## 1
Amino acid sequence: MGTPGLLGEYLTEFDDRISSELNLDPLGLQAIWSSYGQAIFQNRISSISNDVRNYTLNLFNHRLTKALVEDESVVLGRGLNRQSYSGKKDSQAFKQACLIHLENLFTFAVAAAEAEGREAVEATGVLGIGIARREWAAQKRSVKLIFSHQAKSHLLSRQASLGVSGRYKTPLVQMEFFNSAYDYSRPASTPVWKRADEQLFSSTPLAALMKLAHAYMKALLSEADPEPTRTFDKVPPRLLSAFVAAFRTPQAVGGYSREFWLAVTGLDQGSRGALYQVLEDESSSPRDVLLQTEQVFRAAIKRKPLADDEKAKLRYVLKLEPFLAELDLLLQLMLSANAQTLDDVATRWSALGRTERTLNERATIVDDTPGLMKQAVGTPAERLQTLLRIAHEPNTKEQARKLLDYHSKIMRVRGQSPWLRLVAGGKLKVDVRRRDATDADTRPVGAWVHHYYIPQFRQLLSGLRGSA
């Protein structure tokens, strides 16, 4: 798996300030490759949104919150008529408090079921389960669940961004369930909610859970306390059992939600649909060997029928990645030894089967691929254009020098120090842990290093298949 991203709003425009590339991506390449990956996946898949159970849990929590907002019989108690909510169920603060409370309720339901051995449940992948286990071990059924949008109610640090509702927000926004302010009543949202009600919330295990959770929340919200609180032992056991039953494993969730999610995400359509078919074939292969990312893309582009514009998205990745991978390798060479010169780097580059023309040739392929550059905008486009200019420097030594300058600028934008620098005598000083040396067999010319969300797509599909 490549660099994981922690993006609050994932890659509509890349932002170094909220990305884990700060510590793992010295050339800022994640901004580039992820923009081409998201042109295919349309934010349905990301490094932090790739689990069908969490996808479905988030949609359930939003559907219940929507019901609470719209149900006139749900009346806020005296305490909730003050402060942030001011009695307004349609406020963003109220909706966020509902989402966080439901997330925590589910997580503690799993922790309790696991600890007490009452019901089989797969805890791996449940966000916050480690913290919930510790709190459960210390407090058991006296654990408190607070209704509030503020940090005091959070199980996770920065839960509004890094919990289920934060990580899976952008996919649901892209699918029109709501906008960034959690407005459920937009005309564009009506068809998708209608489909969800028909396919998920009327006949699956979510139907029974919805009734129990609605009754629980209605009672909680009517209390006079400005921060209604429940200790775990006061939560109805039937509600806890229904939560566990509905979300027991990703595969169990995939078993009843597969057709719905394929329909609303379109993951089986277009360029992503071609990748989907390749991964489905891979899963049924008796060889039990995962294809490399490059192999997945090469197989996908041969799928028929595939519209020209969708095929182009796959072609762009096939043309782009060998160039990005060679840039990555050149920096890795500079990071793999201390006190070497740029001439030393050029010699080692040659020993790996590269020439002074390698980067130039890869850059020319990118330049000459119609439409490729137009797909990138903003930060990804700026970085890619700069790297293409570097690749057209006349020799490896100058390419390395310019790449070093580029790296320094990337790090300065992040408010960090560069990982390496030229010092007296033309020596490279590496200020981080040195990288392992590689060889031509491990990194043949053009070998890929970025994944373009294929591992995450596999993860989602493994749940959607509904098998153990």
## 2
Amino acid sequence: MFESLLARVRKTDHRFTVYANDGAAIVDGWFANHSVDVERRPLPPGVPAPFLTVERDDEFAGVLPLATVERLLEPPIVRPERHDGLSPAYAALFEVLDETVYTSMERRELTAISREIEDRAHRVGTGTLHVGFQRLSVFRTELPEYRRLAATDLDIHVYGIEDWTPPDIPGVSYHACADDQLGRYWALAFDGGEEGAHSCGLLAREEADGYTGFWTDDSATVAAIRRQLETGCD
């Protein structure tokens, strides 16, 4: 259902080089779970602390202390809503965080990312939030959160395989999906409200050992997630 979108996002134009003599467990683990080109090199003589160099579109973007990168990559990852004012190296790193396919992501990590998207939608208080819950019965445990979201001016659309009848909530529309493939996916798409500056989305496919997918602040990609949900369900 979302395969073409996942395949497109797998393409990356970023390159990272880690300079360190000892292991960097957090960074190594993150790179192992992402489709990111990374190279390891020893720390140059006289350099006191490990660091990371960043290239974007084959051009040098900057250097980041490895300790800073490790703190950024500790879940839950907190990302800026806008990249304006960030240095080129930080901007490149957050671009990769925003739209890089990850593998073996655990459910608790996806829940944390979903909460961040829902909280952003709540703060904005306007716009449209589309959420795929795999099966509508999964939505049962989310009722308190979505009643809170529906108390704003958000227009909320919930999608899922029809295996349960959810209660009527003003501001929430339900869409029953006949395509069993939706049961493999976890998806959210928030259009960012009236100005669209805060758009964000998440797409993940369930695998035997976790989830494969991405999250993004790119409005075009968020719109693509929304369209896939709309075309796959009533």
